[in-house]
Write a sequence for this structure.
């Protein structure tokens, strides 16, 4: 038995509890900080009694039901679309090298912050955007941009497109990560082969054999996507309608309104938002049960083919359109960032200039430093906490309780707009004046789940015999951890670090709210500039937003190789 | 007091006022100087968090220049907190007040006017009676220009110091439309011939509200215009607002996106002009237009002009919250903002082009010379254009117009769109 009284073991033992507290307290505290004003208790305005005034005001708001419907509709349809296309791509290219090619093409989108993706897509579909320029005037006859309602259409179609394009690579990556698990992947591939040899069409084989086993690994990511889509503000701000906007955007505006009594309504709205997200998650769960029930008989009915060829053709076309959208959006963004005069309908600018980069680089250095400082601090803390929690799990030889795993993913599932305002209030109560610290702390809440998600499987999969061998040779738990486990895990740790950085870089609402608007990052500036006057400057910021996480991942890929190289030499 | 026994009360009142006034004339100026010296001593070597809208790179660059200057003069670190909406700073100060933070506020200086000022003043969130103490405030010649102490008709009571003034300027794309509209009525006709080529930002955006106010003033008969300069009442609204809604009902179907979608921020207008989606737009800072052409954001065919039936004009200010951590330093910054050097720099078309609030008659010839500039960019506003200046209506009208506009055109939009789709 490991005899443990040293500092390391103590620290490790207490980390899971600390991590729980770190996640539960702000999230629940923040929820309370929103619930109280929602029911009329807001000492700042000398309102100390409880009432339903906020909810009444909310229901009386013109277009309130449309806001709720818009949020629900766009969240459900984009999640469903992203999920279906992910499954189709998996099914269609399950045994093809194309699966990894598509993954490589779409993968980079994963690290693109939502705001930047939304900016890129708005440049693509806007009436003077890349699509319209490519087809004008030779096909469309347009000499000046058409007056169509994209982006910002009342139905939220641009928004759905944005969310789908952005979330699809995430789901695909999650599915491939599950398939990369040696036992599961091998088992499913073998079963798929058997199904093929039994004469099943490859598509059918995937749906009947692979999907039922794969779906449990996709459930949490899908729910996270759904929760995010229902309550995010960046994409609706940039692509969504504004009369009325989605509920989350409306709440944000009410919180920031000059009319301070609107805060009660905003808090009531946040409560409704929370209920809405929970309802949507429940709806997905129901949908899942229903699909299971309906498909139960068809899975074992022995039918070999359901128009598989047509579905495959459809998938090829969809995938092609998807990838073209991505390539065109990025190309458009790059062109704008270097464009001189560029009158519609030319497909290329009249001249290319570096001026926009020069101007932007002069202005962005403070926000760049903030972005890096916040990202590295939050991610570093998150990685340490995650590693210690996972180590505690191994020392105790039992996995985290279901409750604990749920808590870790809490900030992913609870809409941030529902607790961040409360968290700001809480931080005010604690007189936490340090804006940068507040922002780092709030980023930590969002970085931890992703770092944990990314590290947990590699850590748990690590062969215990290495640790046992080292311990039997007399190594303390601390030196086993630092000198055996960490060096073996250097690659996944680097990837988790890069993922944490990417998540932190992309945070908009926590930076804005918890920093009191005092801390500018590349992302807050990019969102501000997206509604600004200059497409060119906006492109530069959006590209910067993409470059930063890309650099982080490049480093995460390169660093372990360099270390290895160095070790071999030494 | 002995006198009070035989002097009527009102006379006593006048009597006291005169004595006070005489006293004030005698010792206030010298008192000011020493007071100011103490402000300078206290305010040096500190940070100032300046919360100001940050959506325009030109203005941001000017604020960077201000920061360099106050760093040199007073070793003040002026930190520009870039807001997307000034109301963010208002809610911040309120949040601090609610948390009992009465002395260590995070906001030291706010760029503000209009409804945001009215809200902060009403909730007692601003420090009062400091603006007139600034030595450079005298350069605005407040006795002759009462406008520098009125914010949209509301007396500022020394809660804010004037920074600049602006007038509504229109600009159009000469390639897309040969002849722009010069009056509000012409705009309606023009919009029929140029469908989808004009829009205005939805309230509460500043430019959007300003356009509505310009339309309201232009549409209100001369005999009723006094109503706009008093607090808005329901009766007055019933008299003047129907003209506005009638006009907008006619105009909206011809607007960009058929009036179903309005941009939220005025900055989007310039982007849409750059995309050539719009052929006509407006701005409060005329100098942004030639500057944007130089930065390739607008095509070279853009021309600026002033409407012949009047230009809405207003002054914008800086204010200090009641709980600012560095109020003395903020005063130093506000005072420097009013210096001839800073105001002249700000008025240069290639810097910001924001009109000065100083009365040039109070300045020395050398200082006046700072303001001379040659303005030759083809896209800039011709200085020769003279159109009547329209004063801002009483601020209570803004809330009323906003609220009614949103009721009529805000939330309804989606419904209308749906109906049209169904049909």
């Amino acid at each position: 038995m490991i005899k443990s009284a040293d500092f390391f073991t103590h620290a490790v033992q207490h980390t899971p509890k600390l991590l729980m507290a770190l996640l539960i307290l702000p999230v629940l505290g923040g929820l309370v900080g929103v619930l109280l004003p929602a029911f009329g208790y807001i000492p700042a305005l000398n309102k100390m009694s409880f009432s339903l005034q906020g909810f009444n005001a909310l229901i009386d708001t013109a277009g309130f039901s449309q806001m709720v419907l818009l949020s629900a509709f766009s969240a459900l349809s984009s999640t469903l679309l992203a999920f279906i296309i992910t499954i189709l791509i998996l099914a269609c290219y399950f045994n093809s090298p194309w699966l990894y090619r598509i993954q490589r093409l779409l993968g980079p989108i994963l690290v693109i912050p939502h705001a930047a993706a939304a900016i890129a897509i708005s440049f693509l579909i806007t009436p003077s955007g890349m699509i319209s320029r490519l087809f004008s005037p030779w096909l469309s006859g347009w000499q000046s941009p058409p007056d169509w309602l994209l982006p910002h259409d009342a139905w939220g179609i641009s928004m759905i497109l944005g969310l789908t394009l952005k979330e699809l690579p995430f789901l695909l990556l999650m599915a491939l990560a599950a398939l990369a698990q040696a036992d599961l992947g091998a088992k499913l591939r073998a079963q798929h082969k058997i199904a093929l040899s039994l004469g099943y069409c490859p598509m059918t084989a995937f749906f009947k054999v692979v999907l039922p086993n794969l779906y449990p690994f996709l459930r949490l990511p899908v729910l996270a996507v759904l929760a995010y889509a229902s309550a995010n503000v960046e994409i609706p701000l940039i692509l969504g309608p504004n009369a009325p906007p989605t509920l989350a955007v409306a709440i944000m505006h009410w919180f920031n309104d000059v009319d301070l009594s609107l805060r009660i309504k905003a808090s009531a709205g946040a409560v409704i938002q929370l209920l809405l997200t929970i309802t949507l998650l429940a709806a997905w769960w129901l949908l899942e049960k229903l699909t299971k029930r309906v498909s139960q008989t068809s899975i074992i009915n022995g039918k070999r083919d359901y128009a598989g060829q047509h579905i495959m053709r459809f998938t090829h076309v969809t995938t092609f359109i998807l990838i073209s959208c991505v390539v065109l959006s990025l190309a458009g963004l790059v062109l704008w960032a270097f464009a001189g005069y560029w009158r519609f309908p030319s497909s290329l600018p009249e001249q290319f200039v570096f001026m926009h980069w020069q101007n932007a680089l002069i202005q962005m250095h403070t926000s760049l430093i903030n972005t890096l400082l916040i990202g590295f601090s939050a991610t570093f803390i998150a990685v340490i906490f995650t590693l210690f929690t996972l180590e505690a799990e191994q020392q105790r030889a039992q996995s985290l309780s279901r409750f604990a795993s749920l808590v870790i993913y809490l900030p992913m599932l609870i809409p941030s707009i529902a607790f961040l305002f409360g968290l700001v209030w809480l931080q005010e109560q604690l007189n936490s004046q340090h804006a940068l610290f507040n922002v780092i702390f709030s980023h930590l809440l969002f970085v931890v789940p992703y770092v944990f998600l990314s590290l947990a499987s590699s850590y748990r999969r690590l062969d215990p015999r290495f640790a046992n061998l080292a311990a039997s040779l007399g190594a303390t738990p601390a030196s086993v951890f630092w000198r055996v486990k960490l060096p073996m895990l250097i690659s996944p740790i680097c990837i988790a670090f890069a993922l944490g950085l990417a998540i932190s870089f992309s945070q908009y609402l926590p930076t804005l709210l918890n920093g009191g608007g005092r801390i500018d990052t590349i992302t807050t500036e990019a969102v501000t500039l997206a509604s600004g006057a200059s497409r060119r400057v906006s492109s530069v910021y959006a590209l910067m937003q993409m470059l930063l996480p890309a650099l982080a991942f490049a480093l995460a890929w390169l660093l372990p190789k360099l270390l290895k190289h160095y070790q071999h030499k030494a | 007091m002995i006198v009070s026994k035989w002097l009527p009360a009102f006379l006593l009142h006048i009597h006291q006022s005169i004595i006070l006034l005489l006293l004030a004339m005698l010792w206030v100026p010298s008192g000011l100087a020493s007071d100011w010296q103490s402000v300078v001593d206290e305010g040096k070597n500190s940070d100032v968090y300046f919360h100001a809208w940050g959506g325009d790179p030109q203005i941001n660059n000017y604020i960077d220049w201000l920061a360099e200057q106050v760093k040199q003069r007073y070793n003040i670190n002026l930190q520009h907190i870039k807001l997307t909406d000034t109301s963010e700073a208002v809610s911040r100060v309120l949040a601090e007040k609610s948390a009992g933070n009465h002395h260590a506020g995070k906001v030291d200086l706010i760029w503000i006017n209009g409804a945001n000022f009215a809200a902060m003043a009403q909730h007692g969130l601003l420090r009062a009676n400091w603006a007139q103490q600034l030595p450079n405030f005298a350069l605005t010649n407040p006795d002759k220009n009462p406008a520098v102490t009125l914010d949209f008709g509301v007396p500022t009571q020394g809660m804010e110091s004037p920074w600049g003034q602006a007038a509504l300027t229109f600009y159009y794309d000469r390639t897309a439309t040969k002849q722009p509209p010069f009056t509000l009525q012409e705009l309606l006709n023009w919009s029929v011939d140029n469908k989808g080529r004009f829009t205005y930002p939805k309230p509460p955006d500043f430019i959007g509200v300003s356009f509505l106010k310009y339309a309201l003033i232009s549409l209100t008969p001369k005999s009723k215009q006094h109503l706009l300069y008093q607090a808005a009442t329901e009766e007055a609204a019933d008299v003047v607002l129907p003209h506005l809604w009638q006009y907008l009902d006619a105009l909206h179907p011809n607007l960009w996106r058929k009036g179903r979608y309005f941009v939220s921020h005025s900055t989007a207008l310039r982007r849409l002009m750059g995309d050539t989606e719009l052929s006509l737009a407006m701005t409060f800072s005329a100098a942004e237009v030639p500057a944007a052409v130089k930065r390739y954001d607008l095509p070279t065919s853009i021309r600026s002009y002033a409407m012949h039936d009047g230009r809405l004009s207003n002054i914008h200010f800086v204010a200090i919250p009641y709980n600012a951590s560095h109020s003395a330093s903020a005063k130093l910054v506000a005072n420097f903002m009013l210096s001839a050097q800073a105001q002249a720099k700000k008025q240069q078309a290639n810097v910001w082009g924001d009109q000065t609030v100083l009365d040039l008659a109070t300045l020395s010839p050398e200082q006046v010379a700072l303001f001379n500039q040659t303005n030759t960019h083809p896209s800039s506003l011709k200085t020769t254009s003279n159109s009547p200046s329209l004063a801002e209506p009483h601020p209570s009208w803004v809330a009323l117009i906003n609220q009614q506009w949103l009721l009529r055109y805000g939330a309804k939009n989606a419904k209308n769109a749906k109906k049209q789709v169904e049909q």
Chain B has a mean pLDDT of 84. Chain B touches chain A through 73 residues (CB under 8 Å).
